[in-house]
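Review this fold:
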Amino acid sequence: MAVVVLSVTTIGYGYMTAGTTAAAGAGEQADGAATNQQAVEPRDNITVVATDSNTWLGEKSDGPRANAELIAFAPNGSVLYYNDSHTRYWDVDPVPETQATVEYVYAQHLNESQCGGETVCTRNGVERVNLTTGAVEQVYSGITPGKHSTRWHDVDRLDEDSLVVADIAEDRVYVVNTTTNLIEWEWEARSDFTPDSGGPFPEDWTHLNDVEVLDDGRIMVSLRNHDQVVFLDRETGLQENWTLGTDDDHSVLYEQHNPDYMPEANGGPAVLVADSERNRIVEYTRDGDSWSKNWQWSDDRLQWPRDADRLPNGHTLITDSNGNRVFEIDENGEKVWSADIAFPYEAERLGTGDESTGGSPMDSNESGNASAGTGGGENAETGGDGESSSGLVGPQLNAVMYVLPVWMGIPHLLALVALCLTLVGWVALEWRWSKYGVAFHAPVSLRSKR
């Protein structure tokens, strides 16, 4: 009985004390419009956040975190822009030579009548929005069959007319001219990887979830299900000696998201990456012809992070998907800004460069306060072997967290498991002690055991 009371109390307290997230609060006020009410703590420059959702058919009521949102916070903490018209929001990039315009990747689930005979399909696209006027421009889109592991997560701008698409559905990267809609270059993962590698082939083989155009023209690509970040030369193809990580070697990367490249001019080469299934943010620097871990960070709440940007001041902006927050830490790992956001996928601080291009590796920051290979800050922990010792790790746990209500964290999940096990055991014992039994023959009958 004590376990039941304690579990119910823990779950009930979590539900009753759960606050409205900043994005949800903005959604209740206005769509596509600014609000004067402060939603988060003030921070220099505009912060844009794109959120995922766990909706299956695109209806806002289809789950505890079913409403995907694109939200921008003004420097004073008020809502500058809000939109929730799409099923998913993914990558967000600033548009060069603008102050408040971004391009973002979206997914829109379509029904059978829109899919040419398919039961369900997805429109993946890129839109450009002026965050101050709300004006939206369609840039490029395409339809893929199904929805699971077919939704584009990232598209990067190559030049004024061309985009680089992370085509997760076809396990390829391609360059498309948005004026002519012609594909001008492509790389297929099958040209360098075998079907017995990565995830299930062909359903969710590479889960190619990120591309980044580097200053030298190469393209950095995240193959999530291969636990690797690879580098492509558009003339020669895969640069094998630059690959970061190894398939199924989870000591380096474990189903990562959104790796960011910091060039030699900024103290690199280095890659900052959300090591999602290990619940940590980790940085690797290029050491001759290999990579070495330079820095990592985690805390007790970090659960399935999916983005981290190194800012020019040495701080790191982190998107914590299952932790339902976006926050910023300084060089010492101390949190200096945080916003509760339901199921965020990516965050971008405008005026700091695209993703981490304006930042530097941690050991090259002028403060010199960060120790190589360790994270810091209140409640931050790292293991001696590089394994995060805080939080719980594993795809199974993150899959469960994916469908839980936004207010339910690890303590509430454990309380729910304890409650269910206790109730099942209780019922089993009561049945065993009762005078009734079940006889399994046709027809099934209920009889007295006495």
